[in-house]
Queue: 4 jobs
Job 1
Amino acid sequence: MAADNFKLTLHMVSSLDGFIAKKDNSVSWFETSSYYKKGVAGQDAETFLKTIDCYVMGARTYEHAVALSASYGWAYGDTPTIVVTNRILPAERKNIEFYSGDLNVLVNERLKPNYNNVWVAGGAILAKELLQLQLTDEIRVTILPVILGDGLLFFNHIGLEQALHLKDVTAYKNGMVELCYAFKKE
């Protein structure tokens, strides 16, 4: 696969006030919705998910996904999933791989030669590190119609100013809004 086709997308679901989880790490508020008449219906999830070659996530996101999979199934299917962690965690599926080390090496030497469309599926700490190292190509934030008031922030003291280019905005019938920004590379 050609590295010039490579895209690393940082995706996060957030409350309107920028929180990605409550203080207890719960995401029950994900089911919050409201009807927006002018919104579009979501695209076919199964077709869309087939466009993602690999997922990358932090350890806490992985642990949370494993816990949720008991009730809802494994959200990432058979797509290769790399968990960035310094801890030893159980591999719940054969497509799970663990990585500990330099994120530049992960992205440039392991992901770029093997994949075209990689999604970072969560982890505020991982997101912050990828943003600080300027390794992401785009950010997709899906904003749910709820204000949490407190919890784990998506963008928390990144310490870096970066110009973005708005690629797309989609308002859905369930009241969610997705913003897609590309990073302006200098």
Job 2
Amino acid sequence: MKAVWEMPLVQKFIRCVLYSRAAVISVLHALFCRMCAIREPGLAMTFVPYSEKGRAYIGKQRMLHEFFKARQRVPAYVKLPMPMFKSLSTTVAIKLLPVLDKNHFAKSNTIESCCIHGFIPKGSVIDESSGSSGAPMQWVRGKREREYNQRLIRFSLKRLIPGNRQIIINAFALGPWATGMNISSAFEKHAVLKSLGPDASKIIQAIKHFGTAYSYIIMGYPPFLKNLTDRSDIRWSEYNVSFIYGGESMSEYLREYMQRKCIRKVYGSYGASDLELNIAAENDFTIEIRKLLMTNKLLANKLLMDTNILPMVFQYNPADFYIEQNSNNELLFTLCRPGYVVPKIRYNIYDKGHTLRLKDLKRIMRSCGIDTSEFQWPKIDLPLLFLYGRSDASVSYYGCKICPQHVQDCIMMSKTLRDQINNFCMHTRENNVGDKQLEFYMELKSHGMPDILKTQDLAALFLLNLEQINQDFRESMAIAGRDNIPLVHFFPAGHHQFRSLDFKVKYQYII
């Protein structure tokens, strides 16, 4: 005998109530945002202080609304089975919605079938991902979603780095790639913009040409920004230069290194070409919390799901992006704003992380004996997003996991290593007797190779730093024994081993 909630009429009633409630909230919020967004400063109304619960509630309702709309209008969603709802609770209903990813959505359907009404509308832009996880994917972005995102990018930048005489230099890869295209579009009519792509010599030439009368905001990937910072033919202290980075994480050692080179401010933005560019962003408060996690082990143990990895810390708007965590600690994203040509509901890009309310952070800090009054808390109580990186962006070595950030930390924390090493990559393999071997490949800054004793000293220093940063690695080294100590190979600058790993687009650290 069927349960009451399985009866067709009951299911229809539950869906009707859920959809109606979600539609009303979504429409009212959309009208409010549209009125506020007539001018860019009006976006501040979307972030009204002390309204965290309201934003979270709106995000849930908009999520359901977008799902029901997609079920009616998007062929790829029509094929999905309709969940059997058991109650009128929004929270319960959300857990029943299907989880999608690149393989089960973008790759298993045509581009048109993923779009509203099954076709690509006029005014859309098709860009592509960098292909760091395989072949590049094609992504459709409609005019309405691009315009809102561009307004939000401009608004966020004004809050982070205010100023009048600014030149924004787009150092992301230009051409078909999502980030470079959208950054140029966001500022071309509303700021002084120079889109040069990842060309260090042209960027330095432009800064020298326009001189100290302007301040400069350079946007690009962390490996390129480090490469730009290391250029010796410019005195950064003479100019007002700030960096905005994206595409991958940055260690605090690298941030401090750039600031010691007289880069004024360094902030990160989190996004994904599958989803949206500016999902979450760093600010002075989130950077302060991240630095505290490096030094306060008690707080790190209570707050982090993996104390061997220092996550990036961002703030995000839950009314625009509903973020969940599955059983594998992977983040599920829903684009809650209306107007997306390709809706994404409970979409998994296999980034590991978790979210935390600001009030819960205060409570945990107090339980660790931290005086929260010493911190400059943000006026807007947006939740925090802790991001650990891609779930597959690490190598395993005798039970421990080593991610690119560990290697970056090892290099940047030692002057000897950071003065010698330009780039790196790593991989694991099995030797001829079946033992797992971990190998690191280091590209030197010089075109010549140092003598064998010097490379042995560099390798020993690197492994010693890695043991200090990753406690699991220290234990794994003891298990592996001397015969299976990780190998550290050094190559001169420009070696063919690194030519296919183009950091101008998006660097691939695992080979």
Job 3
Amino acid sequence: MPEIQIRPAIASDIPVLTAIDHHYTAEFVWQMEIQSEEKQVNVSFREIRLPRSVRVDYPRPVDRLKDEWTNRSGILVAVMEEAVVGYVSLMLNIAPLTTWITDLAVMRRVRRQGIGSALVLAAQEWGEQHASRRLVLEMQPKNIACIRLAQKLGFDFCGYNDRYYANHDIGLFFARSLR
């Protein structure tokens, strides 16, 4: 397998990043169930198989990255064989002492080769360098590949936000301590 290098994004990377096919196919979903009683509400998630594979579009307009990339706290890109093949977008100040991964994308042709893991681990190091004590990764409930990646890398489920994304999808949050 070719070596993966991680570096900060530069302006000439942005057209390549926006050209990445951000959609994915889902066969599973973390289904939310709410049980409400008089003085108690229980929310649980369980992984279930969908009746058929579905195409899931990315929850954010990718073309906005062209205009907003300088407003991000950081964008790291993955480079393989001198080509940019993925990125992670980072934000500080969403929560105190926390680095928040808002976007994680890898080109379809090189998925499942450790690039996502390398980007998340680089984000962890970036967060430590920026005095963060916690790293949060957000994702859609149908993004089982990202959920499993988070769990594999030691992240714990830490919450959700109903209708978090512009398409009204739930945002799931996984976090891990830094340092």
Job 4
Amino acid sequence: MKVFSFLQRVFKLFLCSLISGVTLLQINIQNVNSLSMDTIQGEFVIEELRLKVPAEAKAVWLNAEKKIWEPWLSSQNGFLGRQLFWNKAKEEALILVNWKSKSLWKDIPISEVNKVQEKFEDSVKTALNVSENPFELIYEGELDKQE
């Protein structure tokens, strides 16, 4: 009887250890799979921008994008291309800029970006004869490629 009780306790202890080990292993696997994309410096990334673009200003927006942003972006290390979209119902633009890596994109000095943005806004304000940039930034973020 004592032997049976002893074996039963040993079996329970073994079973608890096995379950704990499997649980810990799964937690560690989930942590590895959920590592931040910030740690991956060589991965393709897409910059996502959403702007409010009224229908009456759409042509001016497209023209300024092509005349000012496109040439500057093309000169940047890591720039792979971009796509422009416009949602008529929402009067919103979606700009997707493809970068070879996040580090190359983020290495661009913000002062350079601000100079180009100022040039863009000046061009738009002149073309529309307004005193403020009519294209409000709604959202900016990034999209990481999923395997």
